[in-house]
Each structure stands twice: as structure tokens, then as C-alpha cells.
Amino acid sequence: MSSLSASTLRAAASWQAFKEGQNLARRGVATVVKSTPTGFQGSVRVGQGPHGTRATAHSPSYLEAHCSCPENQATGAVCAHAVALGLATLSPVAPSPAPPQPRDPDRLTAAASPPSQAWNIQLPPNWPDSLARGRLAASLSHCADPPAPADDALCHWLASVGTPAAKSPQHLQLTAPHLGDFLACLIGHPRLTAAPDQTPLEILDDAKLPLLDLTRQGTAVRLVPEPQTAPSLRVGDACWRISAATGTLARLRTGSAVVERLLAGQTVELPLASFLGELETLQGGLEFPPDCWIQSVHFVPAPCLIALALDGSRQQLKARLSIHYGDSPALIPGQPGQPGLPRLAGPDRCEVRNTAAEELAVATLTRAGFTASEPALGQWTLSDQSAIPDFLAHTLAHLQH
Questions:
Q1: What are phi and psi of 347, to 5 degrees?
Q2: Contact 10/300 with Cβ under 8 angstroms?
Q3: Distance between CA atoms of 169 and 148, rounded to whole angstroms?
Q4: pTM assigned to the model
Q5: Which of 59, 117, 234, 275 is deepest in the core (most CB within 10 A)?
Q6: φ, ψ of residue 158 in degrees (nearest 5)
Q7: Cis bond leading into 196, ω under 30°?
Q8: pLDDT tens, N- to C-terminus, the chain (401 residues)
């Protein structure tokens, strides 16, 4: 029986290592060379070069990892590279797509696939001040280099605003609402400069707001943002951070009222339960201090009880599947709910919803021939009369165990 699962990886790695491993897996930089039901071997292309990694799951709660990275070599800890390779073994992920197209697909009219064209793009010397005023001038000219993904995004955007990509040079005067879409097209563009000296510029995506401090005080968590050394501004519905010194413009992840308050320079205090409940969202928009308490927390599946209520006959069987976490109200597997999770179960242990157990219960019913008649209510139906005796005699006993 396989001992390797996402729950094994989550329990074995620190919170930070698991999150970094998730990001690496989504980027498609992990290459699996060999895998078995209890282990994997391969490499992860990141940083100074590929890291050779192998791991063995001796049990559902014990993972032994070996990696060429300094962290694993020094401490033996399950590193982000081992997590990434494990997740890639369980669910292979294609490499990340090209930088995003303009966010308004309704504007991509009949010219859905304009000719691909590489561009040189030049911004004025005072581009940070111009952006702060909500406007920007840009000069575009054709380039003989092979088109980059950002060039394709720019060609689509030009077509959407009725500007032919065949025209070169082009001089744009951008304001809202076009400015935000234009900047989104330039994320990762390789030929973006500022006049007059062709100073290279870079536009980044998914930047995080660094925290100066993240402390837990009893049942409360205090988040303190770092003093802003680079100004941030809103363009459309996105927040951007400007660093004129390094020539970068980075789009920040927001989507949370807590992140918005931190962006405004406010210190935020949250109940511990609220912080843990928002952790997935917060970690996407915030850069936690490397030595804060949450970095050493391991997230493990909470104990749960799967309940199956049966009704019907040998002609048709109906079932209601639910899951119970302690004294919390019953939940339907796979459906949203707040069963008091995540919750701390010790100084370095946090229990989360046991998605693996929920998925296994659903998969067991599906393999037995049940179909979801009312998924939101956990209602399932088995109408195959030939499958009902086998379910009652064998699968039901397996579920009970």
C-alpha cells in the first residue's frame, strides 16, 4: 500500500518548505526520474542549478529525504525541493504558462490571434513619476529577435484596442483603463528600457509585501509591515510597487483586507483562529520573516470520522456521506465549511482539514458505482442492482475499517 501522499509531505516538511515546494511544483521545475508507491527520485531546476533529490516514505507520517541543497545537507530536513518533487510525483504539473494576457477577454475581438511580433519598448526617464500620476508614455518599435511570450500578449492587447501590430514605431499615451492592461502585458518582457540611456527595466508579477514582524501573543497574532522603501500605487484593480533604483515595477498580490491594511502601513492584529483561517491567502501576498514562529509549524491532517447513512433496497441504494471533526457540525466531503480548522494542536503542530480522507471516502463510493445525486448535500445513489450485493458484502466493511 502506498505511503506517499500530499499529507505525508505536509506533515514531514515545515510550513515554509511545503509552501515553497508547492510554488516550485506549480512552476513545473521538478523532473521525476523514478517513482515507486513509497518514494521518488529526480531533480529540481532552481537557483544555482538542478538539485538532485530522492525520498522514501517509510510510513504515512515519516518521510526520509536526501537533497543536494545546503539546507538538507546541513540539517537533513525535508526541503522545498523534496516537497516539489513529491508533489510532481503525485500530480504531474505542466510548466507555468506565459505571462498573462490582458485581463479583459471580452476586448479580444475578431483579431484573437494577431501576427506574432517582437518589440523594443522604451519608457520616458520619469516613468516612476508618470505612473504615480496615473499616466504613461511608451514608444514601441519592431525588433528582429524571436517574439517572447510578453510580445504575444502585447500584440493581443494592441489588437484589442484597435492598433495594428504592423505599425512601427508607435507612440502611446496611456491612462486608465488601458494603463493597467498595458503593464500586465509587459510582465517579463525582455526588451523594456528607459530613455535616454536605454536603462533596462523589469516588470514582475506576484510580488509579496515583506513583514518586519509576525508574532503570536496568546490567542492573537500581530503583523507589522516593513517600512516602505519603495512607493506603491494603484493602477486599475492592481497594486504595483515601484523601485526606481533597481528599475523594477512589481505587481503585488492583494485580495485580502489584511494585506490592504498592511499595504497602507498599518500594523494588524488578528485572532489566532482568523489568522490560521486566512493563512493560505496571506502567504500568497506576504513575505513572512524567516525566523518567525509560523515557519516552524508543521501542518497535519486532523483526526476525523467518516459517517455513511444508508437507505433503500437491493434495487436501489441511497447514501448520505458526511465527515465529523470533533464536536463541530458535520460537513460534506469536498464542500466548503469551517469545522474549527486550522487549529493549533501544540507549539509546532497545526491540524488542518483531512482532505485525503475525504477524497478517499468519495473515491470509494465512486468505485463502488455510486453517483452523486445531490453533491452539496452529500447524497449518493447506487442504481446498479448487480453492484449492490458486492458493496454491502465487501466495500461497506472496508469503509467501516
A1: -65, -30
A2: yes
A3: 18
A4: 0.63
A5: 275
A6: -60, -40
A7: yes
A8: 456 788 778 878 877 788 788 878 887 888 888 888 888 998 888 765 678 899 888 766 678 899 888 788 877 888 889 999 999 988 865 444 444 444 444 443 333 456 789 999 999 999 999 998 989 999 999 999 999 888 988 998 998 888 888 889 999 999 988 898 999 999 989 999 999 999 999 999 878 889 999 999 989 999 999 987 667 888 877 888 888 888 999 988 777 889 889 988 899 999 998 999 888 788 878 889 988 999 888 888 899 999 999 999 889 999 999 999 988 889 998 777 767 888 888 888 999 888 888 888 888 898 999 998 988 899 999 999 999 999 998 888 877 76
CA atoms within 13 A on the CB side of 166: 2
Q: Is the Cβ–Cβ distance between 144 and 90 less than 8 Å?
A: no
Element (H, E) at 239: strand 238-243
Beta strands of 3-134 (E only): which ranges?
30-36, 39-46, 49-59, 62-67, 118-123
Q: How many residues does the chain have?
A: 401
For 276, the 3-state DSSP assignment is helix
Give me the residue label for grid cell 523594477: 248
Amino acid at 218: G
Cβ proximity of 307 and 330 under 8 Å: yes
CA distances from 20 to 4, 14, 26, 87, 151 (A): 19, 10, 10, 12, 29
Cell numbers describing residue 140: 514601441
Q: How far is CA 39 from the centre of its chain?
A: 24
Return the closest-CA partner of residue 277 out of 258, 253, 261, 305. Answer: 258
Q: Taking a C-beta distance cutoff of 8 angstroms, is the pair 44, 85 a contact?
A: yes
Secondary structure (3-state) at 158: helix
State the DSSP string of 99-147.
SPPPS-GGG--S-SSPPP-EEEEEE-TTHHHHHHTTEEEEEEEEESSPP
One-letter amino acid of 60? P
Q: Where are the beta strands (DSSP E) in 347-388?
A: 349-352, 371-374, 379-382
Residue with cell 543536494: 68
CA distance 175 to 344: 48
Distance CA(322)–CA(335), nearest Å, equals 10
